[in-house]
Amino acid sequence: MLLLELGMLGVFVSLDLFLFYVFWEAMLIPMYFIIGIWGGERKIYAAIKFFIYTMGGSLIMLVAIIWLAIHASKDLGAFTTDLLQLYSVAPLFNLSIQSYLFIAFGISFAIKVPLFPFHTWLPDAHVEAPTAGSVILAGVLLKMGTYGMLRFNLPLFPDASINFASFMSILAIIGIIYGALVAMVQTDMKKLVAYSSVAHLGFVILGIFAMTEEAIQGAIIQMINHGLSTGALFLLVGMIYERTHTRDISYYGGIAKVVPIFSFYLMIVSLSSIGLPGLNGFIGEFLILLGSFKSTVLNSWWYTVFAASGVILAAVYLLWMYKRVVFGRVLNEKLEELTDLNKREIFVLVPIVIFVVWIGIYPSTFLKVSETYTNNVLEKVFEPPKAELK
Q1: What does the alpha-carbon distance between residue 97 and residue 205 come to, in Å, rounded to a whole number?
Q2: Cα–Cα distance between 299 and 292 in angstroms, integer?
Q3: Cα–Cα distance between 319 and 269 in angstroms, integer?
Q4: Cα–Cα distance between 304 and 290 in angstroms, integer?
Q5: How far apart are CA 231 and CA 140, in angstroms?
Q6: Cα–Cα distance for residue pair 242/245, rounded to 1 Å
Q7: Residues of the chain below pLDDT 50
Q8: What is the DSSP letter of 142?
Q9: Backbone angles phi, psi at 248, to 5 degrees
Q10: Domain residues of the chain, as ranges?
Q11: CA-wise closest residue to 129 among 5, 221, 37, 12
């Protein structure tokens, strides 16, 4: 876990493309072992699939990094992968060059997000990973893809980003609806939460490529929201799994009377994941939908209409799951012996719930932090450097 944390910190603080790539790959190794050693029945299959998918995408990105550095060296006078120097040169490339580079970086990040149709590794990795692995995967690892889009794709290739905005938004909306529909038919609680991640990250991608201040602010806060809500859902599923050794929804029913504290926390984070006003999920989704509605790049309100259906579908699969697990009669006698959450488990969940409510009621604490960066990104996209390449 500490090695994984080292890799993730490196990814988020690197201002050099090659260093970023090294940390991006290094982070795979500890996650591979977390899934492959401590995972479920199909852990080896899930770990290898996760590794090959991400490795394949990142090799395309490595080729793009080398090509970008060599091409930029004609103007800069030396081979460099310094991101801050490339910010001033890469936007000057013509549209076709930018498009190829955008695609190469974009595929690597889309696999990580995961954006439809690159999402198939995620349910396997989530279901087979131990609870700690699932939480860190949902909470931080998936955000590396959306972070990459914001940090690299938009500022380095502004013309290509505008050109591909509609295409990326369509993929995001397919992911929102598809992820929700597949989550509705799951019988395994963990798999249901895993497919909900595909839907929620679709909102983030839509927000990034709507390219308005509200939408990008919404995308950034939604990354945090997803980490809190989905991370907490995985923790709760893990906690009940430790007691019953099954995640099958049909096994449960009527546990509200037996484990009221567990049922309370599951209700809060489920409503947060749905996007109930007053909780964190609403802020992110509202800003993304508002921003995509106002977007001049997307230039159609149909994107917002289809994306908004994802909010309704989220309510369907999460409330249905909650009803079947928590309410009704206790059909299984073994459930009468369940023990409620202990002090350690409550201690883990309380800070998450505090942030869920805090972001929902007073989001400006967090939005102020990302406001400057959001404006910088939009400035780089819509007002790229005007100097001519040598």
Answers
A1: 23
A2: 9
A3: 11
A4: 8
A5: 9
A6: 6
A7: 388-390
A8: T
A9: -70, 120
A10: 2-382
A11: 37
